[in-house]
Amino acid sequence: MDKVADFFTELMRRYMPDPFVFAIGLTLLTMALAVLAQGQSAELVLQSWGDGFWSLLAFTTQMAVILAMGYVLATSPFIDGFLNRIVQRVKRPATAVIVATLVGAIGSYLNWGFGLVIGGIVARKLAIQVRGVHYPLIIAAAYSGFTFYGLGLSSTIPVLISTPGHPLESKMGLIGLTETIFSLPMLLTALCVLITLPLLNAWLHPKHARDVVEIDQALLNDDSPKRASAVDALFADNTFAATLNNSRLLSSVIGLLGMGYLILHFLKGGSLDLNKINFFILFLGILLLGTPKQYIAKLSEGIKTISGIILQFPFYAGIMAIMQSSGLVNSISHSFVGVANAQTLPFWGLISSFVINFFAPSGGGHWAIQGPFMIEAAKSLNSSLAQTSMAVMLGNAWNDLVQPFWILPALALSRLRLKDVMGYTVIMMLWVGLIYIAVVVLWGYLSH
């Protein structure tokens, strides 16, 4: 296994560029395919790209909020203490890798945004606490748990198609979660990945000490004193304003008001969406940090996790716009679905979703452009709508293991480069892919 890991790590080191360069390259590739394969004029391609460039602006802001404020929540004294108690019980590098994977997986199963943050924070703590941990691997292991989002409570496509009024309701109706993420095949899939993925990740740990790259704490803490000094200077005087800045009463009142709104919202039958999750994270963080001063101090640290998102998400929005306007998604799907039957359509849906996710890595946006064609194919072949939808979701979550779009938060928290961790996530992607393919194929044949 060391040789396999070394092969992919060296491959990524030599050829994997920075995520921003990857986004630029993917943009140029999509433009070329739209012109050469779809026959769209260069003028229309450029127009689509520019028109769609800011179409994910609201989502970009939501992601920035969930990561920055999720960082505040995860580093609050209460949760930080809880994580420290977990970390202090871990003594061996292999165990540390397993724990990081499990925390990232369980967090992502509950909510994908929280899992992205909490996994990276735990991995960093473990790397500091446990001597001999290979830092790039434990960060990759924590991130690998993100694939559980496709099987979990915030799984985009299953939640969407179970919601009244969703865009494809007229074509497919409502499909309950008991037919998708809570179906027996998907529950068994989640259990299988939860058991085997941490063990695989632990197996990838270098066997020789000379191959281990431990955490560079100086790199992580290089600007902490400056941030602390700036915040302390802001609140240093003993004025009435400073008293308010350090007021626990103010934080408690506004925090409880925020929680009260959420309780009222759900009592009236309101649904849980990303905005409500962000609202919860914000006001829970205010309560747990205790004072406005402490919240601002932690938020100033969390801001560093969002720079890559702000820069790169618009490029992926532009790519998605080209994919949709040029018909590239339909062409890719047609090439797979053309050889499908009722039993194999979910399998080809999984594979085509994996490919498309390189170009459209947002679950909701992905479904908006691939979903209509896949549902029509399922109806014409008399294939299961629930299985086809879930297969597209799994293809999305499978590809996320090697999708730079989503790994940015982990890189920001760890201060590592994409090529440091991608060699490991490729191996994890191969293993998870085997599981997803086996499940989708068996599900397709056994249900017909």
Task: Give an overview of the whole structure.
This protein has 448 residues and is mainly α. The chain has helices spanning 2-15, 19-36, 42-52, 57-74, 77-88, 93-110, 112-129, 135-144, 156-161, 169-172, 184-203, 217-220, 224-234, 240-245, 248-267, 274-289, 292-302, 307-326, 328-337, 345-356, 363-381, 385-399, 404-414, 418-446. The protein has one domain (1-30, 39-218, 236-447). Helix 4 crosses helix 7, helix 20 (345-356) runs antiparallel to helix 21 (363-381) and helix 20 runs parallel beside helix 22 (385-399). Keywords: Membrane, Transmembrane, Transmembrane helix. One of its GO terms (cellular component) is plasma membrane.
Write a brief structural summary.
The chain has 24 helices and no strands.
- The structural class is mainly alpha
Low-confidence stretches: none
Distance N to C terminus: 39 Å
Strand content: under 5%
The number of helical elements comes to: 24
Shape: globular
Helix content: over 70%
* Largest sheet descriptor: none
Order of helices and strands: HHHHHHHHHHHHHHHHHHHHHHHH
Q: What is the alpha-carbon Rg in Å?
A: 23 Å
Report the average pLDDT across residues: 85
Number of DSSP strand runs = 0
* Total separate domains: 1
